[in-house]
Amino acid sequence: MRQGKQKANGRMGEWEPAPPVLPLVLSLLCVALSLSLACSRKSPVTSESPPAAVEQPAGNRPRVSEPVDEAAGQSAVAQTQLTYEQSNGQILYLRYCAVCHGKTGEGDGFNAYNLRPAVPRNFTDKEAMDKLTDRHLAEVISKGGQAVGRSPLMPAWGHTVNERQIRYLISYLRTMTTVKPDSATN
Amino acid sequence: METRRIYALFAFFSLLTLIVLGIAPAKSYFREWKRYQKEFNHLADEKAKENILVRKVDLGIQQIWNPELGVVDRCTSCHLGVEEPSLGHAPQPFIAHPTTPHSFQQFGCTICHRGQGLATTAQAAHGRGVLWEEPMLPGIFAQASCGQCHAGKDVPEAYVLNEGRALIEKAGCVGCHKMPGFTRPEMIGPDLTGVGSKVKPAWLYQWLKRPKDYLPRTFMPNPLLTDEEAKILTTFLMSHKDEKIERLAQSSQPEIRDEREIARGQTLYRQARCISCHAQEGRGGIIGPELTKVGSKVNRHWLLAWLKDPKQYLPRTRMPQFSFPQKDIEAIVAYMASEFVDYDVDPEVAAKIEASLPPPVEATLREGERLFKKHGCAGCHTLSGVEAKGGIGPELYGIGNKDVDRLDFGDTRIERNLWSWLTMKLKKPRAFARNLKMPEYEFGDDQVRAIVVALLSMNGRQIPAKYLPAPAPESTYNPQGEFGRIVRKYNCLTCHKINGRGGDLAPDLSIEGSQAKPEWIANYFKLPYSLRPIMEERMPLLNMTDEEIKATVAYFKMVLVSDAIPKELPYNLSDKQLIERGRKLYFEKYGCQACHQINLIGGYVGPALDGVGQRLYAGYIYSWLKNPQAFKPTAIEPNLGLSDEEAAALTAFVTSLPPAKGKR
Questions:
Q1: Residue A119's closest chain B neighbor by CA?
Q2: Could you say which of B269, B292, B481, B605 has the lowest number of CB atoms within 10 Å?
């Protein structure tokens, strides 16, 4: 490659064009930069303070499927149907409510017939349950049956369970209309 | 010519530079999280039309930073609705997070869900990156993360973790594995030192082949022995005799076959409430083994000696020493021999098994001892003459985030991740290789999941002390003197708790002296009856002597008391008006009859209240009514938020109730 140089007498028109060093360097820089960016995707991120965002390659959603033991032809990890809120609600339900409302929510707990003529609510009755708003259910649970003009035999639980737990309970009650007791126990 | 070539090159590189320069902004524009943020703002607009206010997001990486926990979580860059309760049914990644006791802004996401918090694409954040060993935990194992900070088996809202930890304890995993948070109890399986005098050889052989065949609820795992190994081990164990019981066997009286004595034995068996701990036909307690088929298991003379004093044979047994007279013991044993027969056992088969056992020659016994050690029996059972060699399994510190590349999956085709491996290991312990030693527990799916959750919690993560909940103080309660002797003799702490030590089956007795009246307690020891009809487990009739009862009641009265319970209430509890007000509150306002019976009317969730004033101090009834959970955190009785006066009126009413007819 020839060296470009200005004529000694300094005439402006006759200089030979400079070789494209600058664009070459620039484009090389760009390539290097993008390469280094590409590499940095894979480098472990270990620094303690939060650095600027490091981009990761876009990809598919992760597979959070249950692992399957193909040889045995059955799933190795059992799945559960209830969410965190619902299953916490279930624990509370079985402790406080099931004695009257029944384990499956049909209003047939072992203590139910002692409440006659009052009848515990049947939570599996979808039509009736759909008419009750979450707010209404929360009201009954926290203030008791009397607060909504029903039997005082449904006590007020507002001093025993907190608001969050009432929310858990309601989310579990909502599953009782859809989940049949047979499939729930399996 | 040359100049033109240079111009062409210049043009080419300029264009290339422009394109390269363009890539970066384009890449930035099409970023995944930006797309989600735009989608989210669109969703917020949609919600606004339904009059639901959802805060829009300014485009940019969102981040939760907690240097103390090492948390730098950008998950909320896409999961934008986690704290918007109105998005409970929104699609991922915008769905609201269930309400939890912890603040996301303080703890971030990865501390519970694992995954790579710094990442800003879904794949890298969720999955197992090239250099990222902690992939996201599937939701069903998420409670493992509670266990990083919370110790014990009563972690609030983490019932799966609690169950897993309880199972690890019950199944005696610490017999072979050392693991954080568990200490080896004094006894896991029974001491086998005199087992040759206790059980029948054919039973022992079949037990070793598969314990669950005899006791479906046992936690003794199946050691997966070959027939030959089981026979050698049977001969080896049968050679361990208990001299006292052998002497008794030679001298003991002939078996009682008198119908009346057998019937008397049955009455005694029922009075003693053996069923509280020992199930019969699948019904009853779980503290002791089920007795339905015990006739095929134990020798008669062993049972005689056992009922007389269980601690003679097994010093650490949880069974109380009932003070039965000798004649009663014989009647009970006669009843048990006639009732608890194993109809599945064919005497011919049993005889054949016994005949096929190798003779107890030296070589066989040495081989038996080798098998006893090899299969890790010594991890749970002590046997005199055999050096205790516990801990044959690997230590499990840090098992919760063991690198998947260091796990041997054998030729199984399960997914390559830690939780699948643990699940498989617990279900089929020899699935990865045949020569492994772990026995088979035959856990159910839910049990396996719970144990995996508990194991995943052992990830060795260092949590700063300020985030750790205060550990429950370990009880050092150990009563001395006469009361201590009584507590040990009757093993009260198997069922009752006193000052933080003991079981959960029966009421906590820590402040019994301030709760129940001494006269009632004394009578109760003589004739225990059930306060709660629905309970299967009841206080056994221990045949305590008068001196023992006196000493116990005195100890209750002096030591097991609480000054927080008022001795006197500032109300006149015999005031007719107050009682009447209490009656109204009881029946009309609070509906107490839903759960309590008076004169056989009402529910039976709680105890009947007839004559409750003779049983309990008014001060305690009052305190209980004000806040039942303060005395028993698991109490079903709701805290009704009673005013002082209401509580006093209710106390006045229930203490005015006369005892039920026919009861003292």
A1: B594
A2: B481
Query: Residue B502 is which amino acid?
Result: G
The Cα B172–Cα B185 span in angstroms is 9
Residue B20: closest CA among A73, A63, A27: A27
Residues of chain B positioned with their CB less than 8 A from the CB of A100: 594, 603, 605
Which residue matches tokens 């008022």? B566
Which amino acid belongs to residue B538? R
Give the tokens for residue B444: 């159910």
Q: What does the DSSP 8-state code read for residue B586?
A: I
The ipTM value here is 0.81
Q: Give B70's contacts in chain A (Cβ within 8 Å).
A: 48
Give yes or no for a contact between B148 and B177, defined as CB atoms under 8 angstroms apart. no
Q: B641 vs A48: CB contact, 8 Å cut-off? A: no
- Give all strands (DSSP E) within B505-650, no chain letters: none
Closest-CA distance, A9 to chain B, in angstroms, reads: 22
Q: Which residues contact B621 (CB under 8 A, 6 or more apart)?
A: B612, B651, B654, B655
Q: What per-residue string of b and e applies to B18-40 under the rule 16 or more CB within 10 Å gives b?
A: eebeeeeeeeeeebbbbebbeeb
CB contact under 8 A, A54 and B118: yes
For residue B156, name the pLDDT band (cuts at 50, 70, 90).
confident
- Mean pLDDT across the stretch A74-88? 67
A88 interface with B at CB cutoff 8 Å: yes
In the prediction, which pLDDT does A14 show? 40
Per-residue pLDDT of A128-139, as tens digits, reads 899 999 999 999
- Quote the pTM value: 0.83
What is the C-alpha separation between A99 and B603, in angstroms, rounded? 10
Residue A11 burial by CB count (10 A; 0-12/13-18/19+): exposed, middle or buried? exposed
Q: What mean pLDDT comes out for the span A146-167?
A: 92
CA B625 – CA B638 distance, rounded (Å): 9
